[in-house]
Amino acid sequence: MMRPWLLYILVLSLCSTTACQKDGKVESSMNTTIFGKLPDGRDVHRYTLKNRSGATAQIIDYGAAITSLQVPDRNGKIEDVVLGYDTVQGYIEGTAYLGSIVGRYGNRIGKGKFQLDGREYQLTVNDGENHLHGGKTGFNKVLWEATPVPTSGEPSLDLQYVSRDGEEGYPGTVVLKVRYTLTDKNELQVEYEGTTDRPTILNPTQHSYFNLSGSFTNTILNHQLMIDADGITPVDKGLIPTGQILSVANTPLDFRTSTAIGARIGEANEQLAFGKGYDHNWVLRSGGGKVAKAAELYDPASGRLMTVFTDQPGLQFYSGNFLDGSAKGKNGTAYQHRTGLCLEAQAFPDTPNKPQFPTVTLRPGQVYRQTTIYQFSTR
Ligand code: BGC
Predict the structure, then answer these.
(1) Ligand 1 centroid to 267 CA: how many Å?
(2) DSSP assignment, residue 193?
(3) DSSP-based three-state secondary structure for 332
(4) Which residues form ligand 1's pocket by a CB distance below 6 Å?
(5) Minimal CB count within 10 Å: which of 225, 231, 317, 341?
(6) pLDDT at 73
(7) What average pLDDT score do residues 133-142 get?
(8) What does the mean pLDDT of the chain come to?
(9) Three-class SS state of 8
(10) β-strand 101-102 against 78-80: which pairing, if any?
(11) How many Cβ atoms sit within 10 Å of the Cβ of residue 243?
C-alpha cells in the first residue's frame, strides 16, 4: 500500500502542474512550459497562472508579456481578452508592444532629449523625431529573469530585468522587478519595484491590448469606457504634450460617465486628429500616490467589465489606431484597426521636459514603486 506521505507528495506535485480539484473546488496552479527560442539559443518560457475561480493568465519572460488572459463572460464562458502572438517570432518582430512591459520610459520624450542635474542626455529616437517606449530595444524586447513565487494560494510570478547604464541612452543601471499575481477575485495585479545606481528616469507601464468581446475580429468601438479624470495633457501633432492641462468638459475626450468608445471617435477635434483617434494621457482625479479606481471598461455584449486601479497620476488610453491588419496574432488572426485598446497606467508623457508634471526622476537609495490592478467581473 502507498505510504500516506508519498501520496501527499504525489498530489502536491500534480497540483503544481495542473489544476486540481479539492473538495470540489479548483485549486490554483502555476505551470511552466518552453514557449520558444531566441535567435541566440536562449529559451523563452511561458508561465500559466490559474486561480481558484478558473481564470488563467499566461506570461512569457520575453518582454514580461501577458500573452493570454482568460476570464468569464456573464454566462460563465471563459475567453481570452488580450491580443498576443502564438510564437516568440511574433514578439521579436512585432512593433505594437502587445502585452509587454514597456520602459525604461513608457510613452514619448520629445526629440529623445532631457536634462538631469544639469547634464543633457540623448535617447534613441524611434518614433519620428521622438523617443517612444524605451527606444529600439526597450524592456519589451529583452529576456527577463522569471521566478514563480512559491505559494499554495494566489499564483504569482516575479520577473526582473537589469537595464545597464547607457542602454538606449539612459543613465544608470536600473534593476526593475515586476510581480504579476492572479487573485481569486479575477484581478491581475501588476506590482513594480525599481532601483538605480545613478540618477535616472523611470516610468514603466503595462501595454496589454484588451478586447473584452471574446473575439479579436470585433472592434472595441462598442466597449463603454469610464475614466476618472477631469483633464488630459493635450499634445502636438507629434503626440508630445504641450505642457498644459486641458479640461475634458464639452469635448469627445470626456469619459467621466461611461460612454461607447465609437460614439465620438470620429468627431472633428484637434486632439482626436493628432491622435488619429484616442491616444492621450488622462490626468487622474486621484492624483496618484495611492491605489484608486482609474477606469472602467465594459463590453455590453459579453457583460465583461474590467476595472483598472492604479497609484499612477496618468492613464494613457490608446484606441488601437495604428493596428492595421499587419500584425498576425493568435490563431492567425490579423489584428485590424481598433480591435484592441490599451489603458496604460503611468506618469505623464515627456515629464523629463515638463517640470510642472509629477516627477519621474529616480535617485540611488530611492525605490520606484507602482501598483496597477486589472479587475474582471461581469454585469
Ligand atoms: C502609444 C501609441 C503608440 C502605441 C504603439 C501607445 O502606448 O500611445 O501612440 O502608437 O503605443 O503600440
Answers:
(1) 21
(2) E
(3) helix
(4) 96-97, 239, 279, 316, 318, 322, 342, 344
(5) 231
(6) 98
(7) 98
(8) 94
(9) helix
(10) unpaired
(11) 14
pLDDT higher than threshold 80 for residue 298: yes
pTM to 2 decimal places? 0.94
**What pLDDT is recorded for position 152?**
82
pLDDT at res. 25? 62
- Best mutation site among 132, 141, 317, 338 for ligand 1, i.e. most ligand atoms within 8 A of its Cβ? 132
Cβ-contact 57, 183 below 8 angstroms = no
Catalogue the active-site residues.
207, 344
The rounded Å distance from CA 68 to ligand 1 centre is 20
Residue whose entry in the numeric block shows the C-alpha cell 514557449: 35
Strand pairing category for 108-109 and 224-227: unpaired
Contact assessment for residue 112 and residue 349, using Cβ atoms and an 8 Å cutoff: no
Nine-digit cell at 361? 526622476
Matching residue, cell 510564437: 87
Cα 331 to middle of ligand 1, angstroms: 24
Other Cβ atoms closer than 10 A to 191: 16
Residues 376-379: contacts with CB under 8 Å, at least 24 apart = 376/55, 376/71, 376/72, 376/81, 376/186, 376/187, 376/188, 376/304, 376/305, 376/306, 377/186, 377/305, 377/307, 378/72, 378/73, 378/74, 378/302, 378/303, 378/304, 378/305, 379/74, 379/298, 379/303, 379/305
Position 306 scores a pLDDT of: 99
Residue 244 neighbours by CB under 8 Å, 6+ apart? 233, 234
